[in-house]
Amino acid sequence: MIMKTSSKIIIYDDGCPLCAAYTSAFVVTGLLNDQGRKNFSNIDAATFECIDKAICNNEIPLIDTETKQVWYGVDALLELLDSKIPFIKTIGNIFPVKYCLQKMYKFISYNRKVVVATSEKNGYDCSPDFNVRYRVFFLAFFLFFNTWMLEPLFETVFSNSFIRNSSFNQIQWAHLLLVGCNIAIAASLGIKKGLEYAGQVNMLALTCILLIVPLHLVNQNTNILATSINNFYLCMVSLFIIKEYIRRMKYALVIPLHPGIVCINIISVLLFIFYLVY
Fold first, then answer.
1. Which residues, including other chains, have CB under 8 Å from residue 71's CB and lie 6 or more apart?
2. What is the spatial distance between Cα 79 and Cα 9, in angstroms, rounded to a whole number?
3. Residue 223 belongs to what domain range?
4. Measured distance CA(251)–CA(231) in Å, rounded
5. CB atoms near residue 232 (< 10 Å)
6. pLDDT tens, residue by residue, 212-268
7. Same structural domain for residues 145 and 89?
8. Domain check: are 162 and 263 in the same one?
9. What is the rounded CA–CA span in Å between residue 134 and residue 247?
10. Rounded to an integer, what distance in angstroms lies between the CA atom of residue 237 and that of residue 231?
11. Which of 204, 210, 191, 56 lies closest to 136, judged by CA?
């Protein structure tokens, strides 16, 4: 049986690990054949001419090599899924459903470089446009998530670690002071650079939270973990976050252009730890 997608090729950003991962999944699941996934750096000129350059940076294109028809973003994904899931395209094109799908897609697409923090370019630069509204929504959404996660993590992990003498209110206040400090730094950099910096700090906090979640689940379901084990795990997470901080600040050009910001970050984190420990 010939797949409905056998003549279709999806073009992805090879400088974005997130894009590379989910388009690879299309091949693994049979939504595309082995030749149905190409990156912008390796497509031929004829295929490239079919693509609308004003759209493809923000919405991934799917091209039918026989008819030369091109779908973008949500329409491209629905076209692919339709070969495996009956009626998915019909349901996806209902106005309220389509509206929500497009907003979710843009939320991810406009912020994908913030998530992966890579500026690798192997030819055509398909970095998404800078969108203030979606960047601010991204920051607000994950700030809320990170703040909300502090309570369950406090109950299972922090209360059984080197900061066990701190109350939940102390942790919340320390967290809010760190957030306020980074908002002040971001404001000093201007809108675009400031939102880029804030995005990277936000992702560092989210990464830290997500890395602690497995420890939270173990502590939640067992009573066998000693304080020393929690402390060791938190130290390993801290070392990873330090490495990730350096990588992300280089991406945001804070290193080496703004050494003062790095000093403020180091001092604020040390004060954060000192406040919670002592």
1. 61, 62, 78, 79
2. 11
3. 132-277
4. 30
5. 12
6. 999 999 988 876 678 889 999 999 999 999 999 999 999 999 998 999 999 999 999
7. no
8. yes
9. 23
10. 10
11. 191
